[in-house]
Amino acid sequence: GDLTSRVEVKGNGDIAILAQDFNRMTEQLTRNEEVRRNMVADIAHELRTPLAVILGKLESIQEGVLPSTPETILPIQDETLRLIRLVRDLQQLSLAEAGKLPMALQAVNLRQIVEKITEQFAIEFEERGLKVDVVGDAPEVIGDPDRLTQVFVNIIGNALLHTPPGGSLQVLLAETGKPVEEGEIPDESTHRLLDVFRRKGEKTQKTEAGNSGEDKNTTSSVRSDGWVRVTVVDSGEGIPEEELEHIFDRFYRVDKSRERENGGTGLGLAIAKEFIQAHGGVIQVESKKGEGSCFRISLPIK
Length: 302
Ligand code: ADP
Description:
alpha+beta
C-alpha cells in the first residue's frame, strides 16, 4: 500500500493527537522500508562480485581456457571463503540488530583478551615492523568473551592493516567514572594522545586517565558504577574527517578497491558497534588523516 499518505486533522482533540501519532508511525515505517530496501541492494552488490569471479573462473576451466591447477583454483576458493565470511557476518549483524544475539555472559578480563589477540597477531606485527604495547589494566566486566574477542580482533586487525611499516600501536586499558559520550571529548584530547603516544608510550596512560577529569579515585578502587575503557591507538594512515561519521556503517570502506583485496567484508566495525551496544557499552572513533586513529570502547563494569 501507499505508505506516504498522511492524515490531517485540525485542532487539539483526541482525534488530532491520534492523527499525529499515525503520521509519525507512517514516517517511521517509510524510513524502515527504505533501510530494508537499501540493505537488500547492498547485499546483492556485495554478493555479485565474488560470484562473478567464481563463475568466470569455473567457466574458463570448464572450457579449457584455464588449466585446472592449484593456482587457478585458489582464487575460486578465496572468493568462496569471502562469501562464507560475508554470510556469517551478515547473520551476526542481523541477530545483534534484532537484539537476539546469544550471549554467554561471564566475568571477562579485557587485558587477557587483548594480550591473547596481540600474541596471535605477533607474526604479522613483526613482518610489518610494527611495535605493539598493551598498557594499563582494568577490573573485570560482565560480557561474552567470544563476542568481545571478535570486537578487539577487528579493531586491532584494522589498526594493523592501516598502519604502514615502522609504525606503532598501543592498547590502553583504564577504569573510568563514566563512558565517554559522543562529542564529549574535545578533538585535541586524541591529538594530544596521539602526540604523546608518538613521543613515547608510557605517558599516554596518564593522559588518558586525565580524560576522566574530576574523578581522581577511579584507578584506586573497584567501583560498582564504573566503566572500563579500552583505547586502541595507531600511528597509521588515519581516516579522513568526512568519512569518520560513516565508519560504523555496514559495507562502508574508505578505500573501496584496496579494502576488498584485504579480504574485509566491510561489516567489521558495524558488528563491533552492535556487539558493544549489546554489552551496554559505547564505541567511538577519532582520527586524523596521515597521523593515526583512535578507537575507544567503554564497557560498564556491572
Ligand atoms: P573492513 O572489513 O573493510 O575492514 P571495517 O568495518 O572493519 O571493514 O572497517 C571499515 C573501514 O574503516 C575500513 O575499510 C577502513 O577504510 C577504515 N578503517 C578502520 N579502521 C581503521 C584504522 N585503524 N585506520 C584507518 N582506517 C581504518
